[in-house]
Every structure is written in C-alpha cells, then in structure tokens.
From TrEMBL:
Listed InterPro entries: Transgly_assoc (IPR007341)
Highest taxon above the source species: Bacteria
Signal peptide per UniProt: none
Protein source organism: Thermomicrobium roseum
Homology family: Belongs to the UPF0410 family.
Keyword Transmembrane in record: yes
A GO cellular component annotation in the UniProt record: plasma membrane
Keyword set, alphabetical order: Cell membrane, Membrane, Transmembrane, Transmembrane helix
Name listed for the protein in its UniProt record: GlsB/YeaQ/YmgE family stress response membrane protein
Membrane topology category: Multi-pass membrane protein
Chief location of this protein within or outside the cell: membrane
Annotated compartments: Cell membrane
Length: 86
C-alpha cells in the first residue's frame, strides 16, 4: 500500500489524527507527541500489513489515515500483550 498524504505536513497530520483515533478506539491517551509517533509507526505497520494482504494502490490523505489508524491499533494491542505482566 502506497501512503501518499503529501509532504511532511501531511505525514504529521496523518500521524496525529491516526494516533488520536487509535487512542480513542483503544481507550489510551499518549499525549500529542505520543499520538504523533504512534500514528507514524501505525502508518508503517498498516502499510506493510496491507501490502502483505495484497491490497495495493495509492491511499491519499483519508486512506492514509485509515491505514495508519488500523496499524496504530495493532501496535497498541501488541504493546499491551508484551507488557501485560509488568
């Protein structure tokens, strides 16, 4: 999946929105910097997973937010599984 939100400002917007949405969906709040980082990592994870599933093409801004949010939710779930005993 090729995420193309457009430039650095586009990636920052995607990261913030995706991180915030993932936080709302999972009941976590990481603050503005945490949401940005979570959203950007989620974009990478989501794009990678969508590519593995054979879903390809250009996503645009809204598609990038959706893919990044899905990836960020997966990242949160994995982190919770790994840190559950701590």
């Amino acid at each position: 999946m090729e995420l193309q939100p457009g430039g650095i400002i586009g990636w920052i917007i995607v990261g913030l929105v995706a991180g915030w949405l993932a936080g709302k969906l999972t009941g976590t709040d990481r603050g503005i910097v945490g949401n940005l980082l979570l959203g950007l990592v989620g974009a990478f994870v989501g794009g990678f997973l969508f590519s593995l599933l054979g879903i390809s093409g250009s996503a645009g801004l809204i598609g990038s937010i959706v893919v990044a949010t899905i990836g960020a939710v997966i990242v949160i779930a994995v982190v919770r599984l790994v840190t559950r005993g701590r």
